[in-house]
Amino acid sequence: MREKIWNAVNNAGKIAICGHVRPDGDCVGSCMALYMYVKKAYPDKEVYVYMDGIPKVFESMCRGYDVITDYRDVSPDLFIALDCSDSERLGDAREYFDRADVTINIDHHISNLSYADINHFMAKSSSTSEVIYELLDENLIDKAIAAALYTGIIHDTGVLQYSNTSKRTLEIVGNLLDHGIPSDKIIDETFYQKTYSQNLLMARCVLESRMYLGNRCIMSVATKDILEEYNATTEDLDGIVNILRITKGVECAVLMHETKIISEGEDISENSGVSEYKVSMRANNDMDVSRVALMYGGGGHIKAAGCTMTGTLEEVTKKLLSSINEVMSSIYQMV
Ligand SMILES: [Mn+2]
Question: 25 alpha carbon to ligand 1 midpoint, in Å?
Fold first, then answer.
């Protein structure tokens, strides 16, 4: 597979690289690493990288490089999609991907749809960054490439915590550290760091949280009012549900945030109006929140899933708790 991929790169004059819409750390890291590597290893080739909506924390990784954000057509001979399980997730770059002579799909999602001419997905790898590392010639990896791959691995493994972190992941991370990358700074500045107002918002959500189902479920709601109070966007809520999840004894953590007010209630202070809520859930132990999300047309993974619900806050909370209770009971009765 390695040879097939590099042969395709060798045979192309113009190469485009693209990740998925709303790129995360692994997406930005793997795209930038491959982009920098191909430019370095094949100086005679024209190489382009597409990414839109790069979160602020990853901007420094892309600084000084010509990242295409307007999705103009560069008519590449070879188009490489990274961290994309489905070509739909390429967003506006998809039509150029479909038009390219040769396409490659490199990923680590088990659900990958094999939509390219050459499909290389490693479901056991922690991240696309890890898959990319395995394809590179170690001698050509420099500090910038190592930092990009490291960032990707750190983000998809929750700083080497999640169960997708293998012995091989740690070996690769060890090799990347040999390049003298500022690993502590990368973890702090791209993963843990919060602005003061993000911290206040997190504190507020923790303060407003309630325990349910015999203290096995913790739930908090960020209403539009709360979000406005901290001048916050959805991005600012990142990580809060994980903070709720580490509460001792909890099997299921829920953070809901109000996305749309459908009708104001008679008594606004009672939250009696109908709204749309985005629900994000995290599970501990054997709990499976993807089953709860599926009941409301959402989806995700066993340990992290989400859905959208509409109703008064009371209705939504009641329905959701009863579904969580149902799933939890069925799982823990089996044990
Ligand atoms: Mn990924």
Answer: 8
